[in-house]
Amino acid sequence: MPANAAKKKRPRTYDPARSRAAVLAQFGHLRTVVVGLSDEQLAAPGGLGDWSVRELAAHVSLGVESAVRALADPAPEGGLPGSATGEGPAGKAEVGLLDWPFATADLAGRIAEDTRGAAADAPVAELYARAATIAQVLPGADDERVVRTRVGTMRFADFLVTRLVELVVHSDDLARATGVAVPFDRQALAACTRLLADALAAKAPGASTEVRIPPFAVVQCVEGPRHTRGTPPNVVETDPLTWIRLATGRTQWAEEIANGQVRASGERADLVGVLPIMG
Questions:
Q1: Residue 255's closest CA among 237, 272, 239?
Q2: What is the pLDDT of residues 133-151, one digit of tens each?
Q3: Residues with Cβ < 8 Å from 206, sequence gap 6 or more?
Q4: How far apart are CA 162 and CA 153, in angstroms?
Q5: Residues contacting 31, CB < 8 A, separation 6+
Q6: What are the b/e assignments for 245-277, b being 16+ CB within 10 Å?
Q7: Residue 55's closest CA among 129, 131, 126, 113?
C-alpha cells in the first residue's frame, strides 16, 4: 500500500458520546464472561498463536486500560507537522483514524511481551478491575485532547474508536475460544465494521467494486471502471462478523465464499489480494 494511501480518504466521524457508551457496554459484556471463566477455561488455547485464553483476556484488559493511562499522562507537546488530523489543545495528532489499522502489525512482538507479563503477574479479575476504572475517567475526558498511544499521538476521540475495534474483535475471539457467547453492543459492532470497511477503501482505492456489510457499511473500492448508476457490476456482500474476521485474518476468503458467508459477483469482486486489513 502506498505510504499515504490511508490519508487520501477523509475518515467518517463517530459520535464521541456514543463511542464512550459503546466502550463501557462492550467492556461490561466481556468482563462478565471473563470473570466467570474457570481456571481450566482460562488455561485453554486462545486461538491466537500460542496465547491461552488467560493471555487473550489479559490483552483485552490492557487495551482498555491504555485509554485510562492515556488520559492520566501529560498531554504531549509538539507532534508531526502536516498531520492527518487537526491540532489538539497540546500538540498535533501524528496518527489519524484510518492510519491506525495499518500501524499495528509492527507492534506484535511488543504487544505479546506485555500481554504475557500481565497474564503472569495478576489474576484476570484484578486486571479487569483496573481496566474498569475507565468508567470513572471517560465522563470528564476531552475528546479533542491529543494522547500518546503505541502507534503515535492521536485525538482521544479517535483512539476510543480503536478501543471499540479491539473490544469487538477480541470478544469474538474469546467466544470462539471458549464456546461462551459474548453479547455485542450494537454501536460497538457498527463502529468496528465501519472502520475496517473504510480501511479497505483506503488500502484498495477505487470505485469499481461495492462492498456491502448490512446494516452498517457500504464502501466503494478497487481500481477499475467507475460505477455510476444501476446495479454495480462488482459486488461483495457479507455480514458484520464475517467481515471483521476476514479483515483481521481470523478466516480466509475462499473458506467464506465456499460456505456462503460471502457473496461475490463480478470480475473485480475477489478481495483475496487485499485481505486481511490488519493482523
A1: 272
A2: 999 999 999 999 999 999 9
A3: 220, 221, 222, 223, 224, 226
A4: 13
A5: 128, 131, 132
A6: bbbbebbebeebbeeebbebebebbbbeeebbb
A7: 113
